[in-house]
Specification:
- Helix content is about 40%, strand content about 0%.
- The chain is an all-alpha fold.
- It has one domain.
- It is built from three helices and no strands.
- The radius of gyration is 17 Å and the shape is globular.
Amino acid sequence: MPNHFHLLLTPSEENTLEKAVQFVKGGFSHRVHKELGFVGEIWQTSFEDRRVRELSDYQGFAEYMHQNPVRSGLASKPEDYPYGSASGRFQLDEIPQRLKPTAKAISTQA
């Protein structure tokens, strides 16, 4: 997206969500200033967070993010947007273990 991005982020036990976002914003800003010579602010001062409580939440957020470039007219389908996770160009982390269905949950759905 030209003016924003979405991120599904699972903070570690040592780092809060705020600290993780600070690392992302700080690292990106440092590289843009150093490598591109960009002068000025890049980020808004805060961020918007949504808690992912279960697998269906995760899947819904991922689908929303995949469709974002399509809705914006940047691609005809999610896989065509080269900067998105649906493109297959990036190595993605696995779904957090706490969101994966357990064998017991799967057997009760059958």
